[in-house]
TrEMBL record:
<keyword id="KW-0472">Membrane</keyword>
<feature type="transmembrane region" description="Helical">
    <location>
        <begin position="84"/>
        <end position="106"/>
    </location>
</feature>
<dbReference type="GO" id="GO:0016020">
    <property type="term" value="C:membrane"/>
</dbReference>
<feature type="transmembrane region" description="Helical">
    <location>
        <begin position="147"/>
        <end position="167"/>
    </location>
</feature>
<keyword id="KW-0812">Transmembrane</keyword>
<dbReference type="InterPro" id="IPR005330">
    <property type="entry name" value="MHYT_dom"/>
</dbReference>
<dbReference type="Pfam" id="PF03707">
    <property type="entry name" value="MHYT"/>
</dbReference>
<feature type="transmembrane region" description="Helical">
    <location>
        <begin position="213"/>
        <end position="235"/>
    </location>
</feature>
<protein>
    <submittedName>
        <fullName>MHYT domain-containing signal sensor</fullName>
    </submittedName>
</protein>
<keyword id="KW-1133">Transmembrane helix</keyword>
<feature type="transmembrane region" description="Helical">
    <location>
        <begin position="47"/>
        <end position="72"/>
    </location>
</feature>
<feature type="transmembrane region" description="Helical">
    <location>
        <begin position="174"/>
        <end position="193"/>
    </location>
</feature>
<feature type="transmembrane region" description="Helical">
    <location>
        <begin position="15"/>
        <end position="35"/>
    </location>
</feature>
<feature type="transmembrane region" description="Helical">
    <location>
        <begin position="113"/>
        <end position="135"/>
    </location>
</feature>
<feature type="domain" description="MHYT">
    <location>
        <begin position="9"/>
        <end position="200"/>
    </location>
</feature>
Amino acid sequence: MGEVHHFTYGWVTPVFAYGLSFLGSMLGLVCTARARVATDNRKRAGLLVLAAWAIGGTGIWVMHFMAMIGFSVSGSEVRYDVPLTVLSFVIAVVMVGVGLFIVGMGKPNALKVLSGGLVAGLSVAAMHYIGMAAMEIDGKIGYDRNLVLGSVAIAVVAATVALWFTLVIRGLGATILAAAVMGVAVCGMHYTGMAAMRLESSTGFTALHGVSVNWFLAPMVLFVLVVFFAMMNLTMAVPTAEEERGYASRQMGNSPA
């Protein structure tokens, strides 16, 4: 079996992957923070849906496939099953959404942060391993159990810390720090999970189906553009009076339900 390369193009793909994870996490955490102080439940829900799309779609899914552009196996093509790849996207967005709604709706407390962080962290892991299950290579893929567990732990811990930041710290600097931590969670989980992969030689030529990773470039670019312009709109917008009242109420310990 050929040699596995995780950095075919050097540091270009991991650097871009982290940047995309940071961008998606940044918008998602900005939306989550604004949802926390919104007094209108419909607006709050809308912000949390956008946050789930940003973190799950761009911060996790796009990051994964940007990193996978740098993955190759000498002597074998690397192709992807489209339905499973789409499923990995849906799971990332939906599970992140569940975690954010746990934290973003109602009054904040430690149990909500821990629960939301657990769900958000598991969504990173679920997206990664379903995305890897969609991969077709001329060989058999296995995993080191200890490294798999380590990758999941990295994702859960860092995602929990990032969500905690959105509740206790206010300001652009804190949001940037939280997005940086979330980016570490996603990228750290991804490359630890890739290190856990074990590739066994096949007994003969395997007919590969699916599409190459380049097939996903168009939706990746679209997701990034949507997130970028949405973030610009949100960060440049002046907080509404409703949001200022919500923040003041939260500071006094009476966060709006």
